[in-house]
Amino acid sequence: MPTYEYRCGHCGPFELQRAMGEAPQHHDCPGCHTPVRRAISAPHVNRFPEALAREITRAERSQDEPEVVTSLPPPTGRRASTGGSNVPPRPVPPPPRR
Ligand SMILES: [Zn+2]
Question: Where are the domains positioned within the chain?
Fold first, then answer.
């Protein structure tokens, strides 16, 4: 639910949660009960941190238009895990002589 901001000249800003499009243009200040005009600002539809919102947007977009990988990712200096073992595989024995 979006949060709408009002700014009382006496008490400062306060916020009101209303359904989208149902916030009144004026609302009584909870402090001094003076009708206060709604501040012109974008409603805070979400309050996620910007990085999190960006990742969620990217994840949702990947459902319809996944990002195409055109090159290898940069090397990180670590090899991909092969199962947790550092023991190299045994060499294949030579074929038996005849
Ligand atoms: Zn007030």
Answer: 1-63
